């Protein structure tokens, strides 16, 4: 049995759901084919919105990230109005402590991207309880966070369904069927064949299994602790972004600690070394949490590309668009990805910024073969 939809999104993670909501709000008929949202990178990340804390150099990638961060307040408010639920968006700022004083303590900035170097006394005033090895750090007041794991992905699912998006779970896409005219004609899956006028690939770390594009899984292990009820007020005021560790406090006392970065393919599971790395790094950065009760451990897979930039925009097939390879910035880039790809697919409005994220930047045939 063949099923038809105007647009089919292959992948039901954060990027796919963000696009589904945007497309549906603009009047499209949308179907999302999702294998297992629990494996999606957008569900397992920490939710940092950190283009400045990441210290990305001036580049198209930095522009893309800053444009997306600027959309976040209105984007999450729209989702909250649609669902009457809280996304956990919190413009708390990010503090980036360091263990060695850098040669230069000034960073490029604009009125929209302020940053401040804090010496040890000042950074301890900003955040008491930092480790003895911290010598100073940067304060990025415009960076933020969102509660992706408990709230954002769930809210996107609810918003999509309430708008009338058809979401089919448990779908394994087996093949994209193409014609000699450089179009995708249908999708073969474990639940039958699907046809659409346009297809958008949002399959994250699994993208290379369908197309010959350089997107590879990069595993990350994470854990959470909770501030004991008797500690009031909550001791962490903002995200801590260390050199190899980040600590992300939620407003209800949960604290996320991440993340390892492992080239192990799609090997699942936790490891003693991974968890030890997280705990030792977190306790060095913020020793206060060493007595906090552990809540949960988990892992996931970031979709990595050779240059760490996403792949966005047209492919070698006229009716297949790519939105994959967001690596560690998928949560941050969800609003701008939804906006730019929807503009392209529905209105043929092509933002010149997309030129820097085309799949064929790696080699001319990088997106010219379906597996």
Give a description of the structure.
With 371 residues, this protein is of the alpha/beta class. The chain has two domains: 2-83 and 148-215 and 306-361, FAD/NAD(P)-binding domain (3-Layer(bba) Sandwich); 94-141 and 217-303, D-Amino Acid Oxidase, subunit A, domain 2 (D-Amino Acid Oxidase, Chain A, domain 2, 2-Layer Sandwich), CATH 3.30.9. 26% of the residues lie in helices and 27% in strands. The chain has seven helices and 18 strands. The strands form three sheets. Strands 1, 2, 8, 9, 10, 11, 17 and 18 form an eight-stranded mixed beta sheet that branches. An eight-stranded mixed beta sheet has the order 5-6-4-13-14-15-12-16. A two-stranded antiparallel ribbon has the order 3-7. A hairpin with a 4-residue loop joins strand 14 (246-249) and strand 15. The longest helix has 24 residues, at 60-83. The radius of gyration is 21 Å and the shape is globular. The mean pLDDT is 94. InterPro entries: FAD-dep_OxRdtase, FAD/NAD-bd_sf, Gly_oxidase_ThiO. It catalyses: glycine + O2 + H2O = glyoxylate + H2O2 + NH4(+). It comes from Planktothrix serta PCC 8927. Its EC number is 1.4.3.19. One of its GO terms (cellular component) is cytoplasm.
């Amino acid at each position: 049995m063949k099923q038809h939809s105007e647009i089919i999104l292959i992948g039901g993670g954060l990027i796919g759901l963000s696009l589904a909501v945007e497309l549906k709000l603009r009047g499209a008929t949308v179907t999302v084919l999702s294998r297992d949202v629990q494996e999606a990178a957008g569900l397992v990340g920490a939710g940092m919105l950190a283009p400045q804390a990441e210290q990305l150099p001036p580049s198209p990638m930095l522009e893309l990230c800053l444009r997306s961060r600027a959309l976040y307040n209105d984007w999450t408010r729209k989702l909250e109005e649609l669902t009457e639920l809280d996304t956990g968006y919190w413009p708390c700022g990010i503090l980036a402590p360091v263990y060695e004083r850098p040669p230069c303590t000034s960073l490029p900035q604009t009125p929209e991207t302020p940053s401040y170097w804090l010496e040890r006394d000042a950074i301890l005033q900003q955040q008491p309880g930092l480790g003895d090895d911290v010598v100073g750090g940067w304060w990025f007041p415009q960076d933020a966070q969102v509660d992706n794991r408990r709230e954002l992905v769930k809210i996107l699912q609810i918003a999509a369904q309430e708008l009338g998006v058809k979401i089919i779970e448990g779908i394994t896409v087996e093949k994209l069927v193409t014609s000699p005219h450089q179009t995708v004609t249908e999708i073969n899956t474990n639940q039958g064949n699907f046809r659409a006028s346009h297809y958008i690939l949002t399959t994250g770390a699994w993208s290379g299994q369908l197309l010959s594009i350089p997107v590879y899984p990069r595993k990350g292990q994470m854990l959470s602790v909770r501030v004991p009820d008797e500690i009031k007020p909550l001791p962490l005021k903002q995200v801590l972004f260390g050199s190899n560790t980040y600590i992300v406090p939620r407003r209800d006392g949960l604290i996320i600690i991440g993340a390892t970065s492992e080239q192990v393919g799609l090997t699942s599971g936790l490891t003693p070394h991974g968890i030890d790395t997280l705990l030792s790094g977190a306790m060095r950065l913020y020793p206060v949490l060493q007595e906090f009760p552990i809540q949960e451990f988990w892992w996931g897979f970031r979709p990595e590309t050779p240059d760490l930039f996403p792949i966005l925009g047209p492919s070698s097939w006229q009716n297949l668009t790519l939105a994959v390879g967001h690596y560690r910035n998928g949560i941050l880039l969800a609003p701008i990805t939804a906006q730019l790809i929807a503009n392209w697919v529905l209105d043929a409005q092509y933002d010149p910024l997309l030129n820097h994220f085309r799949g064929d930047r790696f080699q001319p045939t990088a997106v010219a073969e379906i597996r």
